[in-house]
Amino acid sequence: MNQGQLIVLSGPSGVGKSTVVKALLQYKPKIQFSVSATTRPKRPDEEEGKSYFFVTREKFEEMLQEDALLEHAEYAGNYYGTPVAPLDKALAEGYDVLLDIEPQGALQIKAKRPDAIMIFLAAPSWQELRRRLTGRGDTPPDKIELRLQQARWEYTQATEYEYILISDEVEHVVKELLAILTAESCKVKNRISLLKEEL
Questions:
Q1: How many domains does the chain have?
Q2: Which of 32, 49, 60, 188 has the largest CB neighbor count within 10 A?
Q3: Cα–Cα nearest to 97, from 4, 1, 2
Q4: Which residues have C-beta within 8 Å of that of residue 27, sequence separation ≥ 6?
Q5: Helix (H, G, I), strand (E, B) or coil at 11
Q6: Which residues face 118 on adjacent strands?
C-alpha cells in the first residue's frame, strides 16, 4: 500500500478555504481532514473527534512535552495543535491527509515534514477579499480591518509554499488541487517501489 500524502492548505480568512476543503473531500474519497486538538471549550454544535479533540491545558502541555504535536499555536488564550498519531496512522493506511492551517503552523510542519505538499490559497483580488469578509455580515468593520492586516502578512509568507491557487470558482480550484495531488503521487519517490522487482 502506498503511503498517503500530507497536504497543507493555507490562506487568509475569507478566501474560501472551508468551501474548497468541503468540495475536495467530496471529489476525492481517500482523503481525510486532519482534526486539531484545542484547549478552548466545546461549542454546542461541535463534536468530539470530528470538530476538534477537546483537551485540558495540562493535557495539551503534556502532549507538547512528549512531542506528540506536529505544530501548535496559542490564539486568544487557547492552544491549538495537530496531533501526530492519528495523522501518521491515516498516512500509513494510504489516506491523503489535508490540514487547513495558518502560515505559522504550516511553516512548523514544513520544517518537520519537508515532503508535505504546501498550497497557498489567495483571493482573485484584494477588493474581492474585502468584499467576501464584508459580505459575511457577521464581522464588525474594525475586525475586518484586522483580518485584512493579517491577510497582508499571510500573503508575504506565500513564497514559502510550493503552489499558489486563486480562489475564484470552487470547481476550478478543486480541479487544480486534484491535478497537484496526481502529479505529486507520480513523483519517482512515490512510484519507484513499483519498479523494484525489475531493478
A1: 1
A2: 60
A3: 4
A4: 174, 178
A5: coil
A6: 8
Residue range 94-135, pLDDT digits in tens? 999 999 998 989 999 999 999 999 999 999 999 999 999 888
Alpha carbons 194 and 20: distance in angstroms, whole number: 32
13, amino acid identity: S
Q: CATH code at 114?
A: 3.40.50.300
Q: What is the pLDDT of residue 1?
A: 58
Let me know the angle formed at the C-alpha of 78 by 11 and 139, rounded to the nearest 5 degrees. Answer: 50
Report yes or no on 194 lying in a domain. yes
Q: DSSP letter for 55, please.
A: -
Whole domain around residue 125: which residue ranges? 6-198
Three-class SS of residue 157?
Answer: coil
Element (H, E) at 177: helix 170-185
- Looking at residue 139, its pLDDT comes to 76
Which residues lie closer than 8 Å to 89 by C-beta, 6 or more apart?
none
